[in-house]
Specification:
The chain is 52% helix and 19% strand. It has ten helices and twelve strands. InterPro entries: HATPase_C_sf, HATPase_dom, His_kinase_dom, HisK_dim/P_dom, HisK_dim/P_sf, PAS, PAS-like_dom_sf, PAS_4.
Length: 446
Amino acid sequence: MGSHEPALPFGDRSPEAEGEGEQLWIDVIRRMDVVYSDLVASQVALEEQNQRLQQARDFMHSVLGAMNDVLIVCDAAGAVLRVNAALTAALGREEGDLLAVPLLDLFDPADHADIRACLAEGRAIEDKGWHLLAADGQRAAVSVNGAPRRDARGRFAGMVLAGRPVGELLRAYRDLDKAHQRLRQTQQQLLTSEKMAALGRLVAGVAHELNNPISFVFGNMYALKRYGAAITGYLAAIDAGKPRAELAALRDSLRIDKVLADIGPLVDGTLEGAERVRDIVQDLRRFSSNQREEPEAFNLVRLIHTATDWVIKTQRTKPEVRLELPAALEVVGLKGQLHQILVNLVQNAVDAVNGRDGALIRITAGEQDGWIVLTVADNGPGIPPENQGKIFEPFFTTKPIGSGTGLGLYVSYNMAEKLGGSLSHAEAEGGGAAFTLKVPVDDRSI
């Protein structure tokens, strides 16, 4: 039959066979434990994924519900897949009634051709003025923006449309315009505040500037009064018919010849002093005025002298000022605004060197290719690197509270830009700070 040995009955199996059978059962049980552990782990992972998915759904639902803009998601054929609460409220319809309906059914027929073209092209939509068609037949104008959806292979899969009611946009524009108006008013108030603060600091210097020509005028007028009395006495003697010899003696005693020679220069000096007072008052009015200026021709060098004198004469400890300027720089521009920029720059330099030994301020100016380039440099401590990006910001100051507004450089920077120029900062040679103002020679050319 064959050479195979007959199988042994179960009870007659060898110990080796029984050991192999037990090991097989042990391996099976262990394998079942591993499979069961994998099943438990898979179940836990599945529950965690379901939880995250639910959280994501809840998050998206809350986001969509919180949106004020209407939202529509459609497929490539134009069937609605998803909408938000803002759209259902605008249309007066339930979300379930809108799903799977054609996108065109949500809009006024007059917009259908444009909507079809956008779907056919599958490109981004920007500010389309479409009209939603509510259940009661009312039309609601919306400004629609949209972007195409793509599937995993990059193929066009539909559109995501977001629309904002035009009435809401108009309200937003009005609010923005009001905010802009408030900002402009605030900027003007800042400008006025800085002018008044600067004017307060300059009062002593302006008073000193006025005192000199006024004192000169007073002195000349008293001299003219004496001369008038002498001439009146001499003319009275002539009218009385006094003898020639007596008139000669009176003429000599009243020093009539000297009086006559001195009257012309006295009148010229008085007029010059009065004109100086007038110029100072005009500069002061121009400096403090909020009225719109018109460009005018003037000598910038004289304006630099005036601004510097106003600031320096208010200081108890006066720094050395070196003016490296040409005889004249004729420019056409807004004199009052340039005056304020100069005052602010000189005042800033004075504050920087205050209390330092050998305090020095150096002012240079000249013309370069149709531009005036003016630099005010000091030998103060300079501006730390961490503050250099902030110096033209409003209210930034390193001075103690109550010692500065932090508006001088900010106002000057903005004025320079309005004049068609610029204001920049650099480190001065040998330490300190240097501020360079650049403005056109004739701002009518900008």
